[in-house]
Records
---
Amino acid sequence: MPIKTAIFIRRAERDDLDTVVAWMEQSDFTQFLYGDTARSPKQIREQIVSMLGRSAGHPLPGGIYLLIDSEAYGLIGMLSLQNLSWRNRSCNIDLYIGNRDLRNRLVASLAAFRAIAYCFDELNLHRVGAYIYAFNAPSWRLFEKLGAVRELTLRDHVARDGKLHDLYGYGLLRSEFEAFCKKHAQLIERSEITMARPEGSVAEATGTTEAAGATEAPQ
Amino acid sequence: MITGEYGVIRTAEQDDAVALKRLYDPSQPRSALLDRKRELLVPTLDELRELLNHKESKRGVFYTVEDRCGEVHGFCLLRGAQPEVSYAEFVVMFFEDADYATPLADETFGFLAQRAFVQLKLNKVVAQCLDGEAAYRDFLVCHGFESEGVQRDVLFNQGRWYSLESLQLSAVSYQGSGGA
């Protein structure tokens, strides 16, 4: 499956820095992913430079940071593949839709699909895992729609706003993703064509409205 | 050093590196010895000595479990125990599967649970076991751990896939069972 269609994955350029900093300063980022709200913009910027410096072109990187881009909407979000094991052919995925206007729309679903397709079709992985907070229902619903199985429910595992919350662990095997692609091949193709149109609500056009805010890996 | 009725639990020392290395058997992978990427890497003796030399390493404090005759049967530790996260990973490793069903194992459980729930006041402890660690799983379940699910195909080792089960024991359950 070609990666560069309406939504594509690419390595970050220096010119992307301001956009990514702005995303990481959003309160949603800390809520759904990680980070310290007290961090200064300078600290965020230094972290991002460090992350982007980890080249996906390295022969065996342990983690990969990429951006999700599109011809129709521009930058959509960021993708982080953590604990990448080349022996087990597995990784954990963090996905953040930085452009708030695109959440709850088909474009977010396609971005998640494209990110997972990258893991299986380009990196040749066997398993993609994701840890998602229970209160982040749009994200885990999206992963379930993509065929991922909720394998874990870690009770009272994460503290947010003075309360303990459950953490869900999802797993998606290559065979399950291939079955998903086979089953929804026509829908995916139609969605990509619709996405390529410069205007109009693609979500309404296809009837799919779930979207991802973020998924998270354990600290 | 904790002297129990059936054994002794003490802080592991550099000299225990040889015994610890015995646990790294690639034909019988142990969940507790996988790294963050769930890979089984066999360290050298020097690396294990270095690990045991750091009493407060990231991996936590290793304790050696001996019987009353001084023979080492295994190790235990609470990994990543920090008050702010309110939980830690509960790890017990015996060389022999049969040891998990002995009074020595019960004493080891009691020692770690006491540290976790009474001294550190954690909310819960979590444990993991691969699908080849049936004796360890039975030991955990026997002491009140409940399954939180199974992650499929997380480890590929010697030509086969292994799944990883996560279990937890909450402070409430532990105290409700009369543990503290």
---
Amino acid sequence: MSTDYLKNIFSVLIRNRLAFAGFLIVLSMFILAGLASILGGDPGAIDVAQRLQPPSLQHLFGTDDLGRDVFTRMLFAARISLLVGFVAVGIATLIGVFLGALSGYYGGWIDSIIMRFVDIMLCFPSFFLILAVIAFLEPSIWNIMIIIGLTSWMGVARLVRAEFLSLRERDFVLAARAVGNRDGRVIFRHILPNAMTPVLVSATLGVAGAILTESALSFLGIGVQPPTPSWGNMLIAGKQTLGTAWWLSAFPGLAILITVLGYNLLGEGVRDIFDPRMQD
Amino acid sequence: MQPLLDIRNLKTYFHTDKGVIKAVDDISFSLVKGETLALVGESGCGKSVTALSLLRLVPPPGKIVGGEILFDNTNLLLLPENDMRRIRGNRMSMVFQEPMTALNPVLRIGDQIAEILQLHKGLERNQALERSAELLAEVGIPDPEQRLRDYPHQLSGGLRQRVIIAISLACRPEILIADEPTTALDVTIQAQIMDLLGRLRDENEMALLLITHDLGVVAESADRVAIMYAGLIVEQATVVDLFEHGSHPYTLGLLASVPRLGGKKGRLTPISGQVPPPLARPSGCPFRNRCPEAFDRCAEACPELKELSPGHLVRCWRRT
């Protein structure tokens, strides 16, 4: 894509206020997560003398029942959330794009088999599927990413298939075959780049979904395991002391809310930008 | 002279839910090195399907159901797909009708040309890009180095068609199939593109299969002509023979419907009626419903191609 094109996208992004707000939120989350070890200290540093301190200048978001700094732990938790979000969505997008492309390009019985498989996967309530799988595997952060990825590719597959169904009729696809390209090259080099817009939108929205799922799993105690901080397990850790130390749960909860909101705004903004009907 | 490409009794049918559409029904023609054969006919008469059949790229539900395509004495219809792929774009390539849609909108011009060189000639990307610039210069595109970095939407229709021609000529094919290469272009650009194709054919000793419905283009650039109607070749002759002694009623109709400089004034004579829908072709000769000379026999059976004079074939009961 040319630089003009990217510049153009960026200028539309700025004009779309909500999308830009989403973009800023996502960007600042990246910066905060990236600077976690500079802005905060050691997320595991226990100081029992300082336990359950309310927010102050010394401890921006207060301290927990072991005297650990909540702000620092939240910065490190942001890393986990971003990692889970991106890896899980990456896995889902890879699977979805691959299967959707095969399905849409070849059609016929290949399409039927893949789409029935998609239907079957959509039948499972995926959260319970995840719970069941975690019950067998040990709950590690990598297992969580893989499982979230393996249970959320169906939407992408359908989107990519729909794009391929219309793109494969275009002349340039025939032209690509007429110069002797293999099917694989026609699919992934010639058609796929033309089908990436909806994938990008769905991936952005997917990151929000994956972060939510990870938080939910951690909240239930089968996600990221303490002492590794995650917004979900910090939320549950603050439950017992909610009446006296509200800051333990309130800040991680807000972080989840704002992050998910940011990705959703950005995703919908990107969709509007690419939708020709939405342009002035 | 030994023909380079010899098509014998080619049949390409589309098996649809409503019935079998005989898009190409038993056509035969041959192509000699260095010559231009024009395939002429109205929309929907099977010209493009013939072209795609030669490359074995007929879209489903279409299927080649019979005949032989002999290229250098090899029957292409019996080749494994891998070998066929080595021929496409390398020894036999195609120029598409619509320059606006035949280039991939998200790939740079340079990459689209270089790709075919990397594919068939085993060039490295840098070599292939250098060669691409030479090819662009050869098809008359100014400032080729710069154009390599452009995307298709940055070029005009005429320039895009030149790019497409550059792609199709990149591997110096022996046969070039041009499917209405100028239909989508302005008249002035049309002449330039046809000149370019003619020059490149002569320089590379290619055989050119020119698919068109423009008799003006045929008269300018073809050596021989095959007239197609409803999936059949109804007349085949040299250009001179066709324009001077055109014989089939359909050919006469086509010739009469072309305006001529200095011809008599007044309305042009159109061919009455429409091409019959592919699932409702009349019995016997498919042209009989529109033919001013039709008689009983035309409904009974479809005539064979008969030789009127050497190299001049006609499919009509009135002429044999």
